Amino acid sequence: MNRFVGKTVVITGSGSGIGKATALRFAEEGANIVNIDMNKENAESTESEIKKMNKEVLTIIGDISKKEDVNNFVQKSIERFKQVDILVNNAGIGANSISSLMSIPIEQWDRIIDVNLRGTFLMCKYFLKSMVKNPHTEESPIRGKIINVASMRGKIPKAKMSAYSASKAGVIALTKSLALELGSRRITVNAVLPGTILTGIWGSNVTAEQIAGFGGVVPLKHQKVGLPKDVAGLICFLASKDADWITGNDFRISGGMIT
Ligand SMILES: NC(=O)c1ccc[n+]([C@@H]2O[C@H](COP(=O)([O-])OP(=O)(O)OC[C@H]3O[C@@H](n4cnc5c(N)ncnc54)[C@H](O)[C@@H]3O)[C@@H](O)[C@H]2O)c1
Predict the structure, then answer these.
(1) CATH 3.40.50.720 corresponds to the domain 8-253
(2) pLDDT single digits (tens) 134-160
(3) Looking at CB atoms within 10 Å, which of 68, 110, 134, 229 has the fewest?
(4) Per residue in 174-201, is it b (16+ CB within 10 Å) or e — as a string?
(5) CA atoms within 13 A on the CB side of 198
(6) 55 alpha carbon to ligand 1 midpoint, in Å?
């Protein structure tokens, strides 16, 4: 498929896991990629894979929770590609910080909320300024698409995951509020809610089997954990023309896990 030829996609946290798989999938399908991560080494590995495909990529290193960095992302993206069509707010932290509310250090709570919720807010706020000016035609009636990566935990929280669950519930509410606000401006906003996905967010010392145990019951027994490419497929569908009439929704991708 070549669904994104001529489109520019900004992806945060594209140096690893779900973000990397999503960046590669968009590139495979013809998009120009803005590859944003705070980890330089990871970001460079994504860049080199995209370059091997002979696709356009701009790598920017920075922290989505910092206003100055986000302004820099916007400025560099527009300088290079003129307009941004799709924004994927994927960077996130904290799925593996298990702590009771009484013992969680305040700095840890603040950092999880800052990256997951404030970071998504800042990215939307500053990228929208240019997205609302994108042209639209009868053939392409949508000016822009935003896809926020939340989590099942934003809907179904777990004990000792208060900061992460609250941050992701915030991302889901932000998604819905923005969709209502931006519908008349021809911008769609949706959230994806992954279940347990095999990525670096769980740390480097855990096995796939242990990771599978972190989630609830997965009815699709042949595959107890999701793979980054599974989530990438859903994100790309929501960014495609086939999803032009979908906005304000949250989509679980969890192998059927519902608790
Ligand atoms: N893996 C899962 O089981 C799972 C489940 C539900 C939701 N999610 C969500 O999916 C998203 C991607 O997670 P993943 O599992 O691929 O994680 P990952 O750790 O493999 O990748 C996250 C990437 O984001 C980058 N990043 C972190 N903070 C950043 C910041 N402040 N600014 C810029 N980049 C930053 C990291 O450097 C890393 O490259 C996250 O929002 C996460 O909460 C993951």
Answers:
(1) yes
(2) 999 999 999 999 999 999 999 999 999
(3) 68
(4) bbbebbeebeeebbbbbbbbbbbbbbeb
(5) 14
(6) 24
For the chain, first and last CA: distance in Å? 34
Ligand 1 atom 19, closest CA: 201
Mutate to test the pocket of ligand 1, among 89, 201, 202, 253 (most ligand atoms within 8 A of CB): 201
The answer to whether 184 touches 244, Cβ cutoff 8 Å, is no
Q: Pairing between strand 57-61 and 86-89?
A: unpaired
Handedness of CA 121, 177, 182, 248 (dihedral sign): positive
Q: How far is the CA of 15 from the centre of ligand 1 (A)?
A: 9
Question: Could you tell me the distance, in angstroms and rounded to a whole number, from the CA of residue 12 to the centre of ligand 1?
Answer: 9
Give 55-104 pLDDT, tens digit per residue.
999 999 999 999 999 999 999 999 999 999 999 999 999 998 899 999 99
